[in-house]
Amino acid sequence: MQNEPLLEQARGLIRAEGRALMELADQLGDSFMQTVHLVAECTGRVLVTGAGTSGAMAHRLSHLLASSGTPSFYMHPADALHGPSAAIVPGDVLIALSKAGHSAELNQFARIARERGAKVVAWTANGESELAQLSDVVVVVPTDVRAEGEGIFPFGSSLAHGAVGDALCLLARRLRGFDLKELHQTHPSGATATLVPDEEADAG
Amino acid sequence: MSHSDPRSVFEIEASAIRALGEHLDERFWQVVDLIQNCTGRIVWFGVGKSGHIARKLAATMASVGIHAFFLHAGECHHGDIGSLAPDDVMIAVSYGGESDEVISMLPLVKQIGATLVALTGKPDSTLGRSADIVLDIGPDLGQGLAGWTRVSSLAASLAMGDALAIAVGTARGITRQDYTRSHPGGSFGKGH
């Protein structure tokens, strides 16, 4: 098979993903800022949950939050139903990632977290979903089918969750005043800390 | 010894593991043979605390040179079951054998054609009845101790998995040098 037509398909997908992210930037609004304040002012832990591809993005978000100064960890929704949800206390925030918002175990976990006094934030493409209805804050992260693999695989939608998470980490870091100098202490094994410019490190 | 004494936890776990060792039967060796003759991968399967045990046992098997990985039962409902192949041996860990995430996957496991081994304390459970071979890890002895959490069954599952890994490793003639080679980052790799 010729490579050029295949390469064009790959380029087409990446362009569609890029356009979807550009549109997403314009759609961020009040619910996103509510999330930012909940996370920046959280006195407990920020738990992030999701299953499947959303689970991979939830892992990523939890890692980036922790790296940028917000105590955070990941909890798998199915595991949570076998006991670990007992670790949730008032003051915690749960961010639940689910494209459709219909994942039964995730919704049950979110319900338990709310009952235990945590604030629940849903990131979903479906603002009418069960997950959205049971959450305190709903950030609708729209899905552009052209940016999904064959219209099915969660390619663009997972990138969209990643981008919203990046924006959240950036603002939470600034609002919390997490000192970039601390990266030298918390990233001893990686190259990240060496990227902090001197003037930025001095300014905090 | 009083159940409020933390030493009773050690007593209970030790007696569960000791009882398991005394009652090993031919089914244990059938599973060793299955692993020995497996042309695919050994797939450890579970959720919750049993999932953590399964993940550890996959790591132990891999470190003695057995091609093993862990599949999270909850993730299988979101696509990860695509990793399972007909020539694989799946070892499912579930004390009660009725966890929804585990048993709802079993028809698909059968359809794919993988061989199913159950590590369970309930051979008559849905998992036990679906399995090609059941390794009975016995009753959980911690009921009076805590009642609200599994104690000895998880320790027993861990011991059973370790015994499988070591039996297969020994049968394959794995040496300390082989083990050291797969542990470059740990104290084994540094010759301690």
Task: Give a brief outline of the structure.
The complex is a heterodimer of chains A (204) and B (192). Chain A is α/β, with parallel strands linked by helices. Chain A is built from nine helices and five strands, in the order H-H-E-H-E-H-E-H-E-H-E-H-H-H.
Report on this model:
The complex is a heterodimer of chains A (204) and B (192). Chain A is an alpha/beta fold. Chain A has nine helices and five strands, in the order ααβαβαβαβαβααα. A five-stranded parallel sheet of chain A has the order 2-1-3-4-5. In chain A, strand 4, helix 6 and strand 5 form a beta-alpha-beta unit. In chain A, helix 1 crosses helix 7 and helix 3 (52-67) packs parallel to helix 7 (156-176). The N and C termini of chain A lie far apart (54 Å). Chain B has a single domain, classed as Glucose-6-phosphate isomerase like protein, domain 1 (Rossmann fold, 3-Layer(aba) Sandwich). Chain B has helices at 7-22, 26-37, 48-63, 73-76, 100-103, 106-112, 126-130, 152-171, 176-181; strands at residues 42-46, 68-72, 89-93, 115-120, 133-136. In chain B, strands 2-1-3-4-5 form a five-stranded parallel sheet. In chain B, helix 7 (126-130) links the parallel strand 4 and strand 5 (133-136). In chain B, helix 1 (7-22) crosses helix 8 (152-171), helix 2 (26-37) packs across helix 8 (152-171) and helix 3 packs parallel to helix 8. Chain B is globular and about 50 Å long. At the A-B interface, helix 3 and helix 4 of A face helix 3 and helix 4 of B.
- Into how many domains do the coordinates of chain A divide? 1
Give the fraction of residues assigned to helices of chain B.
40-55%
Structural class of chain B: alpha/beta
DSSP summary, beta strand count of chain A: 5
Runs of chain A in which pLDDT lies below 50 for 5 or more consecutive residues are none
The CATH C-level name of chain A is Alpha Beta
> What fraction of residues of chain B sit in β-strands?
5-15%
CATH topology of chain B: Rossmann fold
Can you list the strand order of the major beta sheet of chain B? 2-1-3-4-5
Structural class of chain A: alpha/beta
- Overall mean pLDDT of chain A: 91
In helices, the fraction of residues of chain A equals 40-55%
